[in-house]
């Protein structure tokens, strides 16, 4: 039984391991912080949120200040998919963002079918009065 | 002196004396800290134990909702405040004990989740007070968020509904009025340094008797604000909407009887509570966490940590905000916990469980934990006029941790969505209009935030404010008729300011404003997110960029337009980078500005923001990337350098094979530059916040809180937080200039010595 936890991660309840949903790489124990099974990179946020106003003219340019804000990217060590991002002050400990009780999860999923394709939720009903120019 | 411990009758007498002689009926912590519905009343218990026909309940529920919708529509159609016109309103109904049962389907949820506090105050303190009392025909008003409310710009009208001389329920309407006589116009003053700078502070009091406004009290309120006509008009609007609502409720009582009405109101609360418990129980047991870092007190840059850990065990959920920033005694960005909860509830009803009936019992099974004197649980003495900063965050902060809980479920209550842009990005204004009116309020652009990317499609552009799905951004022509603001660039989506991802966030739009036809006008803004990105991305998507306030001063844009109309393109990037107007003073700033006079023809510019991105950018369909270029949402550089799509610049035809190779190469680069997590942590993490950073909140240990005292860093136990008191930014600037002057003088003296 595999439980889909995020767009990129799942927990294999039989092996109690975190796995990459893109390449099936077994990452680390499901009882551990999944980030310990990934690669991490400390990026200058200006590389992604590039200055759109001329930095020679202005201090504020739509780019985060790298002295205040760092962008941590987490990659699957096998396929290089970006599994998570995290904006942190320089030096701030990364957050353990998911910490599940695996024994309780096993008990819970005893009574559920495995989900292979995550549902997306209902789309809003299409408007019957959609504005068009098809005269 | 002997210690006196009265017992028995003496003790009872003492308690009665103290109760009868309370010096001040301030906000009651017993009411303000309880977000749960109360126990059933005797009659509710009797009715529900006897059982109700569910079909009949459904019919009555439909009639109540229709009545609420009508009340809401009346306020929207008649209200004078900009907030009323663009939907920043609600109509609600409460049980006789003051628990909120239902709101208008198109109302702002947060407003509804706050009036139960003042109604409970009225019931506790005024019902049996011989100088006040409650009777048929009464109407009560309030605006101070310390007695319940989002913030003090919102004014409510609450009316008890009697049937056969018995109190059956309460009805209310609320409008974001804006102007309230605060130290700056518009009701949300970033410069408020104490609660006495906040303007009107109405505790709940009777302002309507025999279904009519008491004109003496109305005059007192009008005399306390900059816009007396608005104050009067909207008090009448709110009163007449609750009167209509009351009529509809009386009709339901006539047609269906009191038992069915009382039973339906209570059953709605209890059914939702049961359903929320079921929804919590189906989540995995465990804890998910998120951090967000607003970067300003609106007077100075400061990195404020907001921390949320959500824990589920069985059918219990705990939301733990401990470890967040301490409160500020002389800054306006604090919020009390009741205000925070109203918007936190909105986050659940807008993004997580939007299919649930909108009632306060959604939160009854959820426990919330705060540090005392935290910015999110601030004491009543702190100014809270710009509580919008923490409460806007509260509208999006649970989205990521709740999605991490619920992604595994075999079903969805709504789409999985990354956080919406969560800052009140709008111009607040004040001054004299071209029609000779004194006004102070905010522009409806506050309602145009971009939505986050979803698990299956991009976010919607400028879709709504995070506090309501139904508010509108307003009609510029209507606004220009009433105000001297001229919108030179409006609703153009802000290119390249995007939360990138497999599915990108919806974009925000540019606001380029000037003024004319007035001798006195000014703007202010109250946003964070100019240094630190406003929200986290979801599942590998990026967050939004940061935003800046731009100005072109010492010009008259209207003269330029008369002489050189072809020279000016109303696009912030073009105006600021190319500086087409000669002699202009071009500058950019953080998006926090206290009230500033804008001369005729000067240009002030800001943006509504984008929602966060969902998923890895390398997983975005190249066709969607090209579509974004075609629609002018992103530049060619962004397509190439962020999304790694290879295409012909002229035809925009994608080279599929080259794109695959470029993306594979980027994946390889990631593997080369990424470090194993433990190694990364050993290099990256520091034991304390960087010395140069004005940091507020916990670091690695939530029980230790960092702050400053007289500009120097201090560490406090979370159980013993002291309030922050910040120096006046002007004094800081003067001090810095004086130091520079002293250094320059010393240098000059040195030069003179050498010369001689």
List keywords for this structure.
heterodimer, A: 135 residues, mainly beta, three-stranded antiparallel sheet, 1 helix, 8 strands, 6% helix, extended, B: 756 residues, alpha+beta, seven-stranded antiparallel sheet, five-stranded antiparallel sheet
Describe the protein.
The complex is a heterodimer of chains A (135) and B (756). By secondary structure, chain A is mainly β. Chain A has one domain. Chain A has one helix at 102-109, and strands at 2-4, 9-12, 17-20, 26-29, 39-43, 70-75, 82-88, 98-100. In chain A, the strands form two sheets. In chain A, strands 1-2-3-4 form a four-stranded antiparallel sheet, with no helix packed on it. Chain A has a three-stranded antiparallel sheet with strand order 5-6-7, with no helix packed on it. In chain A, a hairpin with a 4-residue loop joins strand 1 (2-4) and strand 2 (9-12). Chain A is extended, with a radius of gyration of 21 Å. Chain B is of the alpha+beta class and 756 residues long. Among the domains of chain B are: 42-277, no CATH class; 415-617, no CATH class; 621-673, no CATH class; 689-720, no CATH class. In chain B, 33% of the residues lie in helices and 18% in strands. Chain B contains 21 helices and 25 strands. In chain B, helix 9 packs across helix 10 and helix 11 runs parallel beside helix 12 (388-394). Chains A and B meet through strand 5, strand 6, strand 7, strand 8 and helix 1 of A and strand 8, helix 13, helix 16, strand 19 and helix 19 of B.
């Amino acid at each position: 039984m595999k439980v889909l936890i995020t767009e990129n991660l799942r927990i294999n309840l039989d092996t109690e391991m975190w796995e990459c949903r893109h390449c099936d790489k077994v990452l680390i124990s499901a009882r551990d912080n999944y980030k310990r099974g990934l690669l991490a990179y400390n990026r200058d946020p200006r590389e992604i949120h590039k200055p759109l106003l001329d930095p020679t003219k202005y201090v504020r340019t739509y780019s985060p200040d790298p002295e205040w804000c760092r962008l941590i990217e987490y990659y699957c060590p096998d396929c290089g998919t970006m599994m998570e991002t995290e904006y942190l002050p320089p030096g701030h400990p990364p957050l353990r963002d998911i910490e599940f009780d695996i024994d309780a999860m096993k008990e819970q999923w005893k009574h559920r079918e495995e989900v292979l394709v995550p549902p997306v939720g209902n789309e809003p009903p299409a408007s019957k009065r959609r504005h068009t120019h098809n005269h | 002196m002997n210690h006196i411990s009265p017992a028995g009758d003496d003790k009872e007498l003492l308690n009665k004396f103290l109760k009868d002689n309370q010096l001040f009926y301030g906000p009651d912590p017993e009411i303000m800290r309880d977000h749960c519905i109360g126990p059933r009343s005797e009659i509710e218990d009797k009715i529900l134990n006897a059982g109700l026909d569910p079909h009949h309940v459904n019919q009555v529920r439909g009639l109540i909702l229709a009545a609420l919708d009508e009340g809401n529509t009346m306020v929207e159609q008649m209200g004078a405040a900009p907030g009323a016109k663009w939907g920043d309103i609600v109509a609600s109904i409460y049980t006789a004990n003051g628990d909120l049962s239902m709101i208008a389907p198109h109302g702002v949820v947060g407003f509804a989740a706050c009036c139960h506090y003042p109604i409970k105050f009225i019931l506790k303190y005024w019902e049996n007070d011989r100088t006040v009392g409650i009777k048929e025909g009464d109407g009560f008003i309030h605006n101070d968020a310390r007695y319940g409310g989002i913030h003090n710009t919102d004014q409510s009208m609450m009316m008890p509904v009697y049937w056969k001389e018995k109190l059956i329920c309460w009805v209310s309407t609320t409008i974001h009025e804006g102007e309230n006589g605060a130290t700056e116009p518009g009701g949300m003053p970033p410069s408020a340094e104490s609660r006495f700078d906040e303007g009107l502070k109405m505790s709940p009091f009777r302002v309507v008797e025999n279904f009519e406004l008491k004109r003496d009290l109305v005059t007192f309120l009008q005399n306390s604000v900059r816009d007396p006509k608005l104050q009067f008009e909207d008090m009448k609007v709110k009163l007449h909407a609750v009167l209509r609502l009351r009529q509809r409720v009386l009709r339901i009582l006539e047609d269906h009887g009191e038992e069915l009405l009382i039973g339906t109101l209570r059953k709605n609360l209890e059914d939702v509570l049961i359903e929320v418990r079921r929804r919590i129980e189906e989540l995995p047991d465990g804890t998910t966490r998120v951090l967000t870092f607003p970067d300003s007190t609106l007077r100075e840059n400061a990195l404020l940590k907001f921390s949320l850990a959500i824990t589920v065990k069985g059918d219990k959920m705990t939301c733990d905000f401990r470890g967040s920033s301490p409160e500020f005694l002389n800054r306006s960005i604090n919020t009390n916990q009741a205000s925070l909860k109203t918007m936190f509830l909105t986050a659940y009803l807008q993004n997580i469980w939007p299919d649930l009936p909108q009632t306060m019992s959604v939160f009854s099974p959820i426990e919330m934990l705060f540090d005392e004197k935290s910015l999110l649980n601030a004491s009543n003495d702190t100014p809270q006029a710009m509580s919008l900063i923490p409460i806007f965050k509260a509208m999006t902060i649970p989205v990521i941790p709740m999605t991490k809980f619920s992604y595994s479920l075999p079903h969805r209550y709504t789409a999985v969505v990354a956080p919406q842009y969560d800052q009140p990005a709008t111009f607040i204004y004040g001054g004299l209009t071209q029609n000779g009116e004194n006004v102070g309020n905010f522009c409806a652009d506050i309602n145009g935030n971009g939505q986050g990317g979803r698990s299956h499609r991009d976010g919607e552009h400028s879709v709504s404010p995070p506090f309501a799905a139904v508010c509108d951004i307003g009609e510029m022509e209507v606004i220009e008729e009433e105000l001297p603001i001229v919108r030179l660039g409006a609703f153009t989506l802000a290119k390249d300011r995007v939360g990138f991802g497999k599915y990108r966030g919806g974009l925000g739009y540019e606001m380029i404003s000037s003024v004319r036809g007035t001798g006195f006008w000014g703007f202010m803004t109250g946003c964070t997110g100019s240094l630190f990105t406003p929200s986290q991305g979801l599942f590998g998507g990026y967050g939004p960029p940061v935003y800046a306030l731009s100005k072109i001063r010492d010009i008259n844009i209207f003269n330029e337009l008369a002489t050189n109309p072809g020279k000016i393109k109303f696009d912030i990037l073009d105006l600021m980078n190319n500086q087409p107007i000669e002699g202009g003073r071009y500058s950019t700033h953080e998006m926090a500005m206290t009230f500033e006079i804008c001369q005729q023809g000067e240009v002030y510019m800001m943006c509504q923001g984008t929602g966060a991105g969902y998923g890895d950018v390398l997983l975005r369909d190249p066709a969607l990337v090209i579509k974004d270029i075609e629609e002018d949402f992103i530049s060619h550089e962004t397509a190439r350098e962020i999304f790694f799509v290879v295409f012909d610049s002229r035809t925009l035809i994608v080279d599929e094979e080259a794109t695959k190779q470029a993306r594979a190469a980027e994946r390889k680069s990631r593997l080369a530059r990424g470090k194993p997590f433990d190694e990364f942590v050993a290099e990256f993490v520091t034991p304390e916040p960087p010395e140069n950073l004005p940091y507020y909140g916990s670091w690695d240990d939530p029980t230790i809180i960092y702050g400053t005292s007289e500009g120097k860093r201090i560490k406090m136990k979370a159980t013993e937080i002291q309030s922050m008191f910040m120096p006046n930014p002007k004094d800081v600037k003067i001090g810095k200039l004086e130091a520079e002057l002293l250094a320059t003088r010393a240098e000059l003296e040195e030069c003179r010595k050498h010369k001689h």
